[in-house]
Amino acid sequence: MPPEITCRRVAVAEILPLRHRILRAGLPAETARFQGDDEPGTRHYAATAGDGPLACLTLMPSAWKGRSAWQLRGMATDAAVQRTGLGRRLLEVALAEARCDEPERIFWCNARTTAVGFYERLGWRVVSETFEVPTAGPHVKMVWDAEGVGGSTDAQDRLQACARGGSDGASAGEVAVEPTRPPVAGFIAAELGFLAAAHLLGGPPWVAIGVVAMIGQVVADFRLRPLVGLAPAVGWMVAHQLTGNRELFFPYAMALAAHLAGQFGGRDRTAAAVAGGLVVAAFMGIRVIQDATARVLAVELAVAVAILAAVTVAVPLMDRRPWGAVAVAAVASLAAYAGLAL
Ligand SMILES: CC(C)(COP(=O)(O)OP(=O)(O)OC[C@H]1O[C@@H](n2cnc3c(N)ncnc32)[C@H](O)[C@@H]1OP(=O)(O)O)[C@@H](O)C(=O)NCCC(=O)NCCS
Q1: Is this model's pTM higher than 0.70 or not?
Q2: What is the domain range of residue 167?
Q3: Cα 78 to averaged position of ligand 1 atoms, centre (Å)
Q4: Hey, whose CA ends up nearest to atom 28 of ligand 1?
Q5: Which residues 6+ apart lie within 8 Å of 233 measured at CB?
Q6: 20 with 166, same domain?
Q7: From ligand 1's centre to the CA of 114, what distance in Å?
């Protein structure tokens, strides 16, 4: 059973370490403090599961084009649990509570361009050109108002409870929230399907590398959608089956190494390198068992390390979007294919 996650109002001190880690990494700790943090009207929220905040956000009263509004600031989810639905739940709870108290207020934020997709999924709209924030890169202004936005069942329930007078509004707002459960059955079926294809189209070594990658995938993210990043690896399996070229095992392995690195790349580069490195290590082990010569092993290792280093640099820039994962895996495996000529 995953620990129960609670979304609640907290003191700013509780969320500063998470804010700093996710939004101001590498900068002095004081940069995680925002002007207005300690104002009485400011609200800080955290999603916690025992050991401290996993996601946080702050709402500050701040007019938008003359209208009464909240500015959303410091939205961050711990790298280890991003894309598990936590940010959505916390933001919906905070918005529902704020609307319950003052329905007329709208919401706006300066959003990192890398996070625009997140806000758009929650009904926010981009309302400005891109502009640069020196400490945090390109941003756009986004707004959320009730028009045309349904929100999730959770948020609607909270608003209805509010209308019935059932919310305690600003008094505390502690809400037990079940973490979103990904469709595990579909994920397992897709992983097994991939391994079956590796067995049919490649053979035992292809399955062995596939197993390493699949285990890594479970650790990274057991949702269905990221598995589209396996498409280049499937392509190499098919190409091997059609051509009988056993050398395609190398680009196949590098497609998997790059895919897995991409799954961790949004968190940090070390995790990406370790994840991809495990697939490369499995590949090298199999090549030793296959009696590859020392020269061939040395060339393959050098090419693999160079590709993995490039992937490790590239993946955090790709925003962990599925097309980004496919592109990184495809380019990495094409580079491995080119490396076969060495
Ligand atoms: C952006 C951020 C707060 C999102 O929080 P999260 O907990 O990972 O988001 P969720 O898992 O609740 O995602 C909700 C939906 O948005 C999508 N999403 C999340 N982050 C996204 C992103 N960066 N780009 C596009 N879509 C994204 C999720 O895939 C999910 O989609 P789905 O409902 O179709 O499955 C988090 O990734 C983060 O802390 N990023 C780094 C810091 C940052 O950029 N903060 C925003 C500053 S403006």
Answers
A1: no
A2: 5-177
A3: 11
A4: 83
A5: 194, 210, 213, 252, 255, 256, 259, 329, 333
A6: yes
A7: 9
